[in-house]
Amino acid sequence: MSAESRKLTAREKQIYLRLLARTKPYAGRLALAVVFGILFGGSVFGLLFSAKGGMSQVFGGAATRLQDSANAWINQWYAGGMNHDLLLTIVVLSVLLFCIALRGVTFFFSKYLIEWVAQRVVMVLRNDVFSKILHLPMLYFTGSRTGELMSRTLNDTQLIERGITEVICDLVQQPFVLLGAAAYLFFIDLRLAAISLAIFPVCILPVAIFGKRVRRHSKAGQERIADLASIQQEAIGGAAIVKAFGTEDREQARFEGHNLDFFRRQIKITASKAAVAPLMEFFSVVAACAVLLYSRHAALELSDIILFLGAMVLMYDPVKKLSRVHLVIQQSSAAADRIFAILDVVDNVGDQPGAQPLEGAVREIRYEDVSFIYAPGKPRVLDGIQLVARSGELIALVGGSGSGKTTLVNLLPRFFDPVSGRVTIDGRDLRDFTLASLRRHIGLVTQETILFNDTVFRNIAYGEPGATREQVEAAAKKAHAHEFILAMPNGYDTVIAERGLLLSGGQRQRLAIARALLRNPPILILDEATSALDTESERAVQAALNEAMQGRTVFAIAHRLSTIRRADQILVLDQGRIAERGRHDELLARGGIYERLYRMQFENQAAAP
Ligand code: ADP
Predict the structure, then answer these.
(1) Is the dihedral of CA 205, 210, 215, 220 positive or negative?
(2) pTM of this prediction?
(3) Would you say the CB of residue 551 lies under 6 angstroms from ligand 1?
(4) Looking at ligand 1, which atom is closest to the CA of residue 401?
């Protein structure tokens, strides 16, 4: 919760209004909720009014309007022999019961309708955010941001839900309760009501003042506790350093300082909290004494005074709730701001106007002087890349980590677009094709195999939900996965999450290859796993890959010597540039970067059988 009690900024208002605009489709329900809110306020008045009638009827006193009306009603409609006084009491008390029932029913429906709208708005918001995330540019999904995205979709929508529900509930119900109770005060005695309304703020002043102090110290206290935790963590994690440098005393003093500060704040919070109740009680009784003094002077009845004080008590809750509405708005508009920031991301990797579907065979892929940077001001990750890949060729990309291999292949499915130059298929810029058709032509096998919590069958058929059993099995056979799948407890219907641990790295890779092959894509992007597999797995994966590459244009980020040896072109990347290119033997003979890499990385493999 935001600690300082401050006015809403223009931006917060703007964000909150944007949030409220999302309730528009449910305007009918909200209007109905307001009607129930008004009736709810009316029931407060009715309750006080009929309670007064009931007390007068039972304890005696000047006849009230309720009694007069009930009397007239009985005289008109009832001719039986029942004790008139008893009957009158029953009628008056029935009105009281009706009012309390009305209060319950109207509370229920206004609360229900508002919750319904709030939950609905949040549900739609969650859907929108998820849909946006699915279509966000690939740039968004880099390391540190993933956790943040998750927290935004879940926590922030939760905060927003609270913001909408509480604020609308309070705004729809509480003003009318306040009005109902205040109206009753004026109904009893104009002057008394005016005096009380003037005293009332004084009674709740302690809450306002001390509440603010509590919030301020709580926030600072939380920061201190976080400091304590981090000092402790440093001391434990860096125990060796602390001991080696002999800084125990300094660490201890630092810890004690923060700890003392935390203690002082806790005590201030306790003092503030403990002061509120007695002060409120005292001021309330002062106010009550003033009321009693006045009623002696004005000769008010006891029941009037009781209900008068009752009305004041009823007004306390609405005032408290309405006075903190802005805090809730502040908090939820911060969450809404973060959510809207996602919704407002402009997806610049999308279909261009007039984009055509990519159809038929792919004869040639070209990178024409392609450069790429991840963010303005960052160094070039790709710099003047030129390459031509003809149909059926195997292009192997090698180079040190961070040399730009992944970025280069990611331009092909348009995870990113080049900042200068262009990538073409058969002479046409990738941006001239629709994204969906372009991506249908590309199979992607990543290093880390992503398997979904579903059956083997559906994991392979992930991109082709309509695939038949035969098609899936054919793909699995090509990927050399058929046999081990059949050996699983339920074959193709085995749920992977349950058996996830039983799948070896090599098996997971073969499933991923089968998934890519099912679409029979003319272009295959292969990010070979660097992690070592056992020899048998390695052979199976190798065989699967060899088969997968048949008849396709393949871009392989190659770590396997066999892939590299067979490659039609090897591109050696160095700091975003193609430093060398050629076939294996040519590059070895040249004695450049490739030869060095080869010695470092591949000689062990070459020595293996
Ligand atoms: P490789 O696949 O050869 O290891 P990458 O293409 O993954 O190289 O990375 C090339 C360079 O781009 C590296 O310096 C890396 O830090 C940087 N890089 C990669 N992805 C991102 C990203 N999403 N945002 C910013 N920089 C990135």
Answers:
(1) positive
(2) 0.71
(3) no
(4) 4
